[in-house]
Write a structure and sequence with these properties.
Layout (H helix, E strand, L loop, with lengths): L2 E5 L11 H9 L2 E4 L2 H10 L6 E3 L5 H13 L3 E5 L12 H9 L3 E5 L4 H7 L16 E6 L4 H10 L6 E6 L4 H12 L4 E6 L7 E6 H10 L8 E5 L4 H20 L2
Parallel strand pairs: 1-4, 1-5, 2-3, 2-4, 6-7
Antiparallel strand pairs: 7-10, 8-9, 8-10
This protein binds S-adenosylmethionine.
The site of S-adenosylmethionine has 23 residues, from helix 5, strand 7 and strand 10.
Length: 256
């Protein structure tokens, strides 16, 4: 039956494609792709050749309409983004909406995702739990590039207790880690997950202050693709800090 298969592809290492993804990509009639040149190369690596349809950020509405037309003609279609899971800091959401509105099934074919890969090696201590939950996290993705907008967004996260996950580009990573350190506090834990699954893969865990120094120490460490995981605000420290304030107020009011 006609359906849209939303297929995750590798985030670097070509061996990370799933068997099911290969099966689906082999079976479908057409592959809609964020970048048809990249995707043609990716498919060729697995010996797959399919008619391609360009569906990127700038034509997503129009591409969605074309995908629906092909589905109405009885086709099965796969959608892949440049890397990882479509719809996560990548196009895909508008296509899914249009396909569902037209009455067709949207079937996820899960696989690689940079944020899940980074979180899987973050370890303990990044998330401070409010209720009895464990390992909560908030995915932020790319921060705004403008200084003021970025500061406003980070300020709004200052008391957030869960681990926060950011995506960042090489030319902005230093600036971003510096902003995180200044606004959220330099002693929080930071996980720098760089070039995951690739040749120069590097996972470094430190405080934000140390992480900044580590990045500055060698320009090579600022190259590639980054996931940053930052420790959430520690409610214990906040309450002890506010208890401290209360005690101080009490002393001040009662002192002669
Ligand atoms: N849809 C993708 C996913 O599922 O993770 C994310 C696409 S987004 C346009 C690209 C960003 O994801 C990069 O700037 C980087 O922050 C992160 N990323 C992608 N691949 C990565 C890798 N191999 N190592 C570290 N971060 C990666």
């Amino acid at each position: 039956a006609s359906a849209l298969y939303v297929v995750a592809t590798p985030i670097g290492n070509a061996a990370d494609i799933t068997l099911r993804a290969l099966h689906v990509l082999t079976q479908v009639d057409r592959v809609a792709a964020e970048d048809t040149r990249n995707s043609a190369q990716l498919l060729a690596r697995y010996g797959i050749a399919k008619p391609l349809l360009a569906a990127h950020q700038h034509n997503e509405h129009e591409a969605a309409a074309r995908i629906v037309t092909h589905l109405q003609a009885g086709e099965r279609i796969a959608y892949i983004s440049d890397a990882g899971t479509p719809g996560i800091s990548d196009p895909g959401a508008k296509i899914v909406d249009a396909v569902r509105a037209a009455g067709f099934a949207t079937i996820p074919i899960p696989g690689c995702n940079a944020l899940a890969a980074a979180l899987s090696v973050a370890g303990e201590g990044f998330s401070h739990e409010v209720a009895n939950t464990q390992g909560g996290f908030t995915f932020i993705g790319f921060l705004p590039t403008k200084f003021k907008q970025r500061a406003v967004q980070l300020q709004a996260l200052a008391l957030h207790p869960h681990a926060m996950v950011f995506y960042e580009a090489p030319h902005r990573v230093l600036e971003t880690v510096s902003a995180l350190s200044t606004i959220l506090g330099s002693q929080r834990q930071l996980l720098i997950a760089r070039e995951l699954t690739k040749l120069h893969e590097n996972v470094h865990c430190a405080t934000l202050a140390e992480g900044l120094i580590w990045l500055q120490a060698d320009p090579n460490r600022q190259r590639g693709e980054f996931v940053l995981v930052v420790e959430g605000a520690n409610p214990a420290q906040q309450s002890s800090a506010s208890q401290h304030d209360e005690l101080l107020q009490l002393l001040l009011t009662h002192m002669p």
